[in-house]
Amino acid sequence: MAVSPAQRRYNWRVVILAIVYAAVLLPVCWLFARHLVHGPLAYLLGALPALPVSGFFVAIGLYLAQERDEYLRMLLVRQSLIATGVAMTAATFWGFLEGFDLLPHVVGYAWPIVWFAGLGFGAGVNAAIERRAA
Amino acid sequence: MNNRLRDLRNARGWSQQHLGDQLEVSRQSVNAIETGRYDPSLPLAFRIAELFGLTIEDVFVSPSKEK
């Protein structure tokens, strides 16, 4: 399948962000596991892994702004809406069950991971719709 | 929305990829429009009609006239 220039740029951004995420997360975890950072520096380093993760959302926004093919844009919008529905629904259910002490606490950064999983589910829905119509 | 895009394209012996290249959209988009899975925006509908030297109404069937 041909890849549009905007898709190519998006793919590159995602690959670079994934590399940056891995490069940042491992040393930060190492430092915190050994209690080597304190004070303001700890906050700075602690927030560092959030930057590339936030960057994934920026990359998606840039793709939607730069993609000239309106149908491809619509596919990603549908995918993102499905991902948002999955993540928000999961967070809501988990939040209530956790609030009633029925489930353990889940860290906040788990929900973007669920959102990305939802993005994968959305891609599956798109593919199923395409296949059914073919 | 029903349309005559596939017939018009076939009449010229064009592939979906060739039509997509001329419209500056993907082959996927052409396929989605031809099969009625996606209704193009007004600017794209105009580009399609103008490419075939037709009006929008000659290419796309108004939903109100489908039944």
Automatic annotation (TrEMBL), chain A:
The lineage of its organism: Bacteria, Pseudomonadati, Pseudomonadota, Alphaproteobacteria, Sphingomonadales. Keywords: Membrane, Transmembrane, Transmembrane helix. The chain crosses the membrane at residues 12-33, 39-64, 76-97, 109-129. It comes from the Bacteria. This is Uncharacterized protein.
UniProtKB/TrEMBL annotation, chain B:
SUPFAM superfamilies: lambda repressor-like DNA-binding domains (SSF47413). InterPro entries: Cro/C1-type_HTH (IPR001387), Lambda_DNA-bd_dom_sf (IPR010982). Keywords: DNA-binding. GO terms for molecular function: DNA binding. Pfam families: HTH_3. It comes from the Bacteria. CDD domains: HTH_XRE (cd00093). Residues 5-59 form the HTH cro/C1-type domain. This is Helix-turn-helix transcriptional regulator. It comes from Sphingomonas liriopis. The lineage of its organism: Bacteria, Pseudomonadati, Pseudomonadota, Alphaproteobacteria, Sphingomonadales.
